[in-house]
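Weekly modeling sync, notes
Attendees: AB, CL, MP (scribe)

Item 1: holo prediction request
CL wants a bound-state model with zinc ion before deciding which constructs to order. AB pointed out that an apo prediction alone won't tell us much about the pocket. Agreed to run with the ligand included and paste results into these notes for async review.

Input as submitted:
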Amino acid sequence: MRLGCSRDAAIRQARYSQLHRDREAAPKLRTMFPVVEQLRVELSFEGDGAVTPVPQSYVLHPPACAYFSFPCPYGDCDGRFELTAAVHAVVEDSSHLIEGVLDCAGSRVSAFRFKPLCLLRLCFTLTAVCSPAH
Ligand SMILES: [Zn+2]
């Protein structure tokens, strides 16, 4: 009986195409933050599971899409980490460096009726390189 598996795959597929559409619709970094020349996003994870997702890092330049909603790295989790507010903060902050922690609010897809909360912990570091004030 593999029906459950294919349904989960369909849900995952829908999630990714929605994510792709959202990202395509996002404004460019240079439109949203004209002063930003480079934005570095570093993500690391702390979880209780047997497998902790590998760290991720991104460097965004002005033509990149200003889209800061990162899906939980667990493929069976429907959570997202929303870093938009933190990106606004790092651009406005004079040090242009922000560190923070977020817990995943999503739940893991489960074969059981009970869907365990994910609670994967994200530790993020944002660094902005901004052009001098003018
Ligand atoms: Zn999650």
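Recorded for review: The pocket of zinc ion is lined by residues 72, 74, 77, 79, 104, 106, 118, 120 (CB under 6 Å).
Action items: CL to compare against the apo run; MP to circulate these notes.
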